[in-house]
């Protein structure tokens, strides 16, 4: 049997696997093999709620193995260590290797804590919410803060790209401190590499800056844009312009780079470990290698004149690129030569930002400018939209209905 190997089993990898199963008949000569270190699907966007006790990790993950079994998808719960695209081989932990006819890289990212001294989790200074283990630590630190309040810094370091999640965490921090009746004892700071509030790494949305400034003023949050961090000390963060911000608790979003397996597979990636693809998500050199989701290299479509920051790669485009990759592999197998193409920046923007006491819907026909349609709509009454999206996403994927929008 010929092997289609998919590395990674979350948004992009799981979607690609299920879509491939749907597109290739079960009795096809192709075996679909997913390799991933974890058998759980994790709904990453809800990690922002873990530090405030609004979600437990068990609430936002589910076991993928029953679905893989049902769909006849071979699953190997191991870490891939390296890819040799010249021999079509994936090297897996424990000395195993597997050959592929087609490869899908959906290994997500790794955090680059080396961007500033003192950022690493083992330095015990700065909290983080990108992975479950660190989000749980942030919950512990938040409980300590409530007992003994002091200044809080939330934001993103230079080079970061996931500012949206940090904004959500900030507004949830404000909301929860108020609910716990200690907000008046906490000075809250927002620091970001963005040149203006609400840039989000996509050069903003109409009315976005104004709306975020209003929220910051309304919730009494001090903000610093174009912020570059020089040094992190135990009780203060020093910016490159010399400003010193005291903190008792801080959460900073670090920059992302490719997963270790990709950094070790130098023929396939750029200096940061991201896979350079064509708009069909086929590798620029190796026609049988595809990438989807966070693993794809996406360059900012605008010039960054001051503090560096990156482009966010959110769940919707990760899902879309997983589907495109599956469609294109099925096309090649079915003898078609024309592949489906959609540049990352031309994928629609569909996002809900939880702003604590309220939420904001972001819709645009393209992630990047030029856009013909773009709107930010606040829902000032509640934040149910984000909850409904979470419930829908987990519901559809638990049932293997990845083809749904
Ligand atoms: C805190 C936070 C909040 C977010 N909020 C939102 C939001 O509100 N809306 C939104 O649209 N997006 C949001 N995002 C972004 C969204 O989570 C990502 O776009 C999405 O997770 C990307 O999916 P992916 O499959 O590419 O990568 P991931 O979800 O990171 O999955 C990577 C997969 O690769 C596997 N893997 C890693 N290394 C290896 C290896 N060596 N071998 C094999 N497998 C490997 C992992 O186990 C995992 O299964 C948020 C992100 C964060 C961090």
Keywords:
405 residues, 8 helices, 4-stranded parallel sheet, 5-stranded parallel sheet, alpha/beta, FAD/NAD(P)-binding domain
Detailed description of the structure:
The protein has helices at residues 11-23, 65-71, 132-147, 163-179, 208-218, 260-263, 315-333, 384-398, and strands at residues 2-7, 30-35, 40-42, 61-63, 74-76, 80-84, 89-92, 96-99, 102-105, 109-111, 152-156, 188-191, 221-224, 229-232, 236-239, 244-246, 249-253, 256-258, 289-291, 349-354, 359-364, 374-379. It is of the alpha/beta class and 405 residues long. It folds into two domains: 2-111 and 257-345, FAD/NAD(P)-binding domain; 113-255, FAD/NAD(P)-binding domain. The strands form seven sheets. The chain has a five-stranded parallel sheet with strand order 5-2-1-9-19. A four-stranded parallel sheet has the order 13-12-11-17. Strands 6-7-8 form a three-stranded antiparallel sheet. Strand 6 and strand 7 form a beta hairpin. Helix 1 (11-23) runs parallel beside helix 7. The longest helix has 19 residues, at 315-333. The two termini are 31 Å apart. The model has no long low-confidence stretch (mean pLDDT 96). The site of flavin-adenine dinucleotide has 35 residues, from helix 1 and helix 7.
List the helices and strands and how they pair.
Layout: E1 2-7, H1 11-23, E2 30-35, E3 40-42, E4 61-63, H2 65-71, E5 74-76, E6 80-84, E7 89-92, E8 96-99, E9 102-105, E10 109-111, H3 132-147, E11 152-156, H4 163-179, E12 188-191, H5 208-218, E13 221-224, E14 229-232, E15 236-239, E16 244-246, E17 249-253, E18 256-258, H6 260-263, E19 289-291, H7 315-333, E20 349-354, E21 359-364, E22 374-379, H8 384-398
Helix pairs in contact: 1-7
Bound molecules: flavin-adenine dinucleotide (FAD).
